[in-house]
Amino acid sequence: MAPGDGISDSDQVYKAARVASKHFIAFEMADLAERAGSSISAVMFGALAGSAVLPFRREAYEATIRNAGIGVSASLRAFTAGFHAAANASGPDLLPPAKSDSPVKAPGSDNTGFEELLAQARVQFPAGAHEMLAAGLRRVVDFQDMQYGSEYLNLVGKFTCYERRDDPALVQTAAKYIAAAMAYDDVIRVADLKTRASRFARVRQEMLAAPKQIIETTEFLHPRMDEVVGTLPARLGRWLEGRQRLFRFLDRMINRGRRVRTTTIGGFVLLYVMAGMCRFRRATLRHHRETAHRDAWLKAALEAAPVNYSLAVEILQLRRLVKGYSDTHARGMSKFDRAMAAALRLHGRDDAADWVRRLRQAALADEEGTTFNQALQTIDTFLT
Predict the structure, then answer these.
(1) Which terminal residue of the chain has fewer beta carbons within 10 Å of its beta carbon, N or C?
(2) Alpha helices (H) along 69-220
(3) Tell me, what's the pLDDT at 299?
């Protein structure tokens, strides 16, 4: 949910997709797949053909399905449905995202203190931020525990004294991006998500599996030594990083793709045990670094808030640049750090917020970072 816009997460995703894409097509693929008795991938394949963005004739797509030799008739029905839906789609006729008025629920049945934290948030924060806080609170509690949720509310609460009645963007933005910073993707989180019962149920639903039909799930994992060290106790992790020859040797042993079948006992137990390490997460090197990085970012936003409200909001929104896992996370973090360095240099200028906003938009514009580098160079010209 975007701060202050009063619309749901799904609305915001659709809105952003329309802006970012040259040709946006959206429709209810799962329903078409169910009617055809096939999987959603066949409908998506048909949508790709119907969109006419690739220089292939429809017959070539259909031939690919026939050559696979598995569930051909049902797949062709689903393909045809997706093809016509995409070919006939237009901007105003796109299927709107479903609305959801259901309240935010506790992440698990054992989280008995979740409602108490929600009640605390309703008292402590302005009404305009309640929905965002509820979503953020659920995210961080699901990531760690109730104590982590209390820490989240304390961090967001530091911005309440700078909030404006006519512009509640600061607390809303803080609620959104502090939750994102606290619920970072690490190997523990990835293992947790891949072993949840809800994920297996979703896979079965998407595959339209019969009640007694056996489904095998294979996960592709590509761990690096950086991720392994991040799960170690902080002192041990730093010690190992300081032994570069040993570090590089271990990385050569670990840094390769692996396929783990989570529907086997061995594969499931491997990831389940890894997910159980969440109880030790606060002592890991990765958590120490994420916390230090988060606190430095919030410190910059809090220092800007009393003198330049808009700049503080933009500094908080820079967290959008940090996302994903492994290499994707490293690239995003690099852009974030460079943008933050520029934001600190811009502090004191009347147009600081505008320039930080341009940096964020430039960093999101292309993965290679060409536009972002050009924006940084422009800033350098008038700051040096």
Answers:
(1) C
(2) 72-87, 114-124, 130-143, 146-157, 169-182, 187-194, 197-206
(3) 96
